[in-house]
């Protein structure tokens, strides 16, 4: 159970503590932030409302801890990460319970997220040893006009203090995808979890605590965005921000100053279906991609662009699969569970009502109870409808019928977003040409969009983000190149053939 067993130290009364200097603490504010269970719509947990003074202290401690951590042998950093990964997977049940109650993630998927997170930490440890254990050697006479009088040695060094801000939908997995690369690279880490998902994050951080990382190296501050949000992202002690979320990321990037940013800010992932596509494969991928975790995924299929000649058949196949989706509470492992908040449900309903007013074809009756919205496929959607462009982050999927490949590509590229997309066709030449033409960070051929496997590059263009994620890219992004040049008194050449 959450807050019990090995996790007993992270809670006092009914309020979970924040983590600083290797200790679980109560905020001097004496205030807390309520976390609402999306299913019951009642307060499930409470977390500390940290103050700006406490953030200052966390930053001060993180800076000091990073200096000694950067001198810790690489193998030792990896060893501690492996230990944290094992502890995380050992305690998957109470962490998964938090995910079920905080964000209404289906029980089975919640366990999978925690296990996947442990695997990510272990992989990062291994990959970090490989990447950071190698340097580069350059000689000067490879550039015109130079003799071999200079030897250049390059290595990767840590940036300093990394601020990690994960989103509600994968609060554990997308936290460790930032934490593990930061730590293996020799940085310290300050985590600001989302409100919905904060308690799962606190449990995850305790697993790193139990692994024995140095005090102050990892911190986790909770609280109101209005009080500590901008204060954190604009803090002079932060040397890099890794953020996953929505529009807030745009504001962060404008205020952050001259520090590296890793931003993943959502998408309107387009699925283009050609005449020669395997329609059974496409339909299965569309339902999985559009409706798993109630569509609350950045990489969910957000709009289907299907050739008119096969549209009726595809819609029929998708509807047959939608009819089999189970709807209900996450504890019952239902396919469709309540969306994260009432405001999210209201936003989704606004998109649906706009489509209804403009005569989209409703393949199912629109149904909502509280935060629970039944899966809905909207056919004959036109570009003048909001749902054609806006990201619902819910179980509502629009279908736009197209008469040419160019029309589908145009709609995809006219979006402000460019995270992922997918193409269904049996013609690999067409697939490559369409992929090259789509203005998105990743294009999946004959499969739904997906962030993983976690070592694959993951990036968006346009309003979908800055930089690239994925384990290798994150390690590289959280380091900088340091160069040492040895100047020789006379040219020096390697031995020739005797």
Automatic annotation (TrEMBL):
EC number annotated for this UniProt entry: 1.2.1.9
The keyword Cytoplasm appears for this protein: yes
GO cellular component entries: cytoplasm
One Pfam match: Aldedh
Compartment annotation: Cytoplasm
Similarity comment text for this entry: Belongs to the aldehyde dehydrogenase family.
Protein name in UniProt: NADP-dependent glyceraldehyde-3-phosphate dehydrogenase
């Amino acid at each position: 159970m959450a807050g019990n067993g090995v996790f007993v130290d992270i809670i006092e009364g009914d309020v979970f503590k924040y983590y600083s200097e290797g200790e679980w603490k109560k905020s001097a504010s004496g205030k807390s932030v309520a976390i609402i269970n999306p299913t019951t719509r009642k307060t499930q947990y409470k977390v500390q409302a940290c103050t700006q003074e406490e953030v200052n202290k966390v930053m001060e401690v993180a800076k000091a801890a990073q200096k000694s951590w950067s001198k810790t042998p690489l193998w030792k950093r990896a060893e501690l990460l492996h230990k944290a990964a094992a502890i995380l997977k050992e305690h998957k049940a109470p962490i998964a319970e938090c995910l079920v109650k905080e964000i209404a993630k289906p029980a089975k998927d919640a366990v999978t997220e925690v296990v996947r997170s442990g695997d990510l930490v272990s992989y990062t440890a291994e990959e970090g040893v490989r990447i950071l254990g190698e340097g580069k050697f350059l000689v000067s006479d490879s550039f015109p006009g130079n003799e071999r009088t200079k030897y250049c040695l390059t290595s990767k060094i840590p940036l300093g203090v990394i601020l990690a801000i994960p989103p509600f939908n994968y609060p554990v997995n997308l936290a460790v995808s930032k934490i593990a690369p930061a730590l293996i690279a020799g940085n310290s880490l300050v985590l600001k979890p989302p409100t919905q998902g904060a308690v799962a994050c606190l449990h995850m951080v305790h697993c790193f605590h139990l692994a024995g990382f140095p005090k102050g190296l990892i911190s986790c501050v909770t609280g109101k965005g209005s009080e500590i949000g901008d204060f954190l992202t604009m803090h002079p002690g932060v040397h890099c921000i890794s953020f996953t979320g929505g529009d807030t990321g745009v504001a962060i990037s404008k205020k952050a100053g001259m520090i590296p940013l890793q931003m993943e800010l959502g998408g309107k992932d387009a699925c283009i279906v050609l005449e020669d596509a395997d329609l059974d494969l496409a339909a299965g991928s569309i339902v999985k991609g559009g409706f798993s975790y109630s569509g609350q995924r950045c990489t969910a299929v957000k709009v289907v662009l299907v050739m008119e000649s096969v549209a009726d058949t595809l819609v029929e196949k998708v509807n047959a699969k939608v009819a089999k989706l189970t709807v209900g509470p996450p504890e019952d492992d239902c396919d469709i569970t309540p969306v994260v908040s009432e405001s999210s449900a209201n936003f989704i309903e606004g998109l649906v009502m706009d489509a209804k007013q403009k005569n989209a074809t409703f393949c199912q009756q629109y149904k909502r109870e509280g935060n629970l919205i039944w899966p809905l496929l909207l056919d004959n959607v036109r570009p003048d409808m909001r749902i054609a462009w806006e990201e619902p982050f819910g179980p509502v999927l629009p279908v736009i019928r197209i008469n040419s490949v160019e029309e589908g590509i145009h709609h995809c590229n006219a979006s402000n977003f460019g995270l992922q997309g997918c193409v269904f066709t049996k013609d690999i030449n067409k697939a490559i040409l369409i992929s090259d033409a789509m203005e998105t960070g990743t294009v999946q051929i004959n499969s739904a969009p997906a962030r993983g496997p976690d070592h694959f590059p993951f990036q968006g263009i346009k309003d979908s983000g800055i930089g690239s994620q994925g384990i290798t890219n994150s390690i590289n992004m959280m380091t900088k190149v340091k160069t040492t040049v040895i100047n020789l008194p006379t040219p020096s050449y390697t031995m020739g053939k005797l």
